[in-house]
Specification:
The chain is of the alpha/beta class and about 280 residues long. The chain is about 20% helix and about 20% strand. It is built from 3 helices and 6 strands. The relative contact order is 0.11.
Length: about 280
């Protein structure tokens, strides 16, 4: 009878003992999927978007990606589906998963994510390319491997969303549409206080006079204009112009100079010669 009692107790404690030996993991714990449709979309000038998986996990140690409640490959596909949008009429965008590994080496868990986005024209030529990479490492005792992998994947995907968008805007800017949101319209309120109430506000009853704002007179009442008193002109002394007197010094008198008188030269009086003048014959 005692042996039967011990056997029942042992059977009840056996699941707990097995769970303790397994590292304390709760295999039945549910983890929400990772989605990114709450982030702003990335609109591309392409006609279509394709997703290609170029990485295949090993599935054997040290790979532990199969123990991750949120598969890194599925999380990267969700990011592409939720954020990339085609807004063009030509060319194609190819989203490629190049790395999505989760490995464990004793107490060290490492995660690595790498994706790329290429713009391909209709003839197959590559027009643009961008690549994003994220890596994380956790060191320490692993209590609950599934929770550790989920938290690491979630954190890396948050960083990947930022890095992926940055690389696209840096390297593929010509293939982005203009996603600037238009400015919200501004309602102009009249200054007479009769602006319309906001949507959803109860309307005032018919015939009711809108009340003025506290501390201010009603808008319909004209406020008296202040009267400013001007002092008379006589209240201010008028400045006088200074008078300047001419000095009383006598003006000097200067004598007038007369032109100089020069003696007139006399003609010399030469005496006549006493000899008769010769009479020369005239030439014929």
């Amino acid at each position: 009878m005692q042996a039967t009692h011990l056997t029942r107790r042992f059977m009840l404690l056996l699941p707990l003992a097995l769970a303790a030996c397994g590292g304390g993991e709760d295999e039945d714990e549910l983890f929400p999927p990772l989605r990114y449709n709450d982030l702003p979309p990335i609109q591309l000038k392409v006609a279509s978007i394709a997703i290609e998986q170029r990485f295949v996990p090993a599935g054997v140690p040290p790979d532990v990606s199969n123990r991750d409640p949120a598969s890194p490959i599925e999380a990267l596909k969700a990011m592409a589906n939720d954020r990339l949008q085609a807004f063009g009429t030509a060319n194609k965008a190819v989203f490629s998963i190049l790395d999505a590994s989760m490995t464990r080496d004793e107490d060290v868990v490492t995660g690595s994510l790498t994706v790329s986005l290429a713009i391909i024209d209709d003839s197959g030529a590559q027009l643009g390319y961008a690549q994003a990479h994220e890596q994380s490492r956790r060191t320490g005792d692993v209590h609950g491997l599934r929770s550790v992998l989920y938290d690491m994947t979630k954190a890396m995907m948050n960083d990947m969303n930022i890095e992926f968008e940055y690389q696209i805007r840096h390297h593929l800017k010509p293939w982005l549409t203009d996603t600037t949101a238009p400015a919200a319209p501004v309602e102009q309120a009249p200054l007479d206080g009769n602006q319309a109430p906001p949507p959803g506000a109860p309307s005032a009853p018919a015939g009711a006079t809108p009340s003025a704002a506290p501390g201010y007179p009603p808008a319909s009442q004209q406020s008296p204009q202040p009267t400013y008193l001007q002092p008379p002109q006589s209240a201010y002394p008028q400045p006088q112009q200074p008078s300047y007197q001419q000095p009383g010094y006598p003006q000097p008198t200067y004598p007038q100079s007369s032109p100089p008188s020069y003696p007139q030269p006399q003609q010399p009086n030469y005496p006549q010669s006493p000899y008769p003048q010769p009479d020369y014959p005239q030439a014929q």
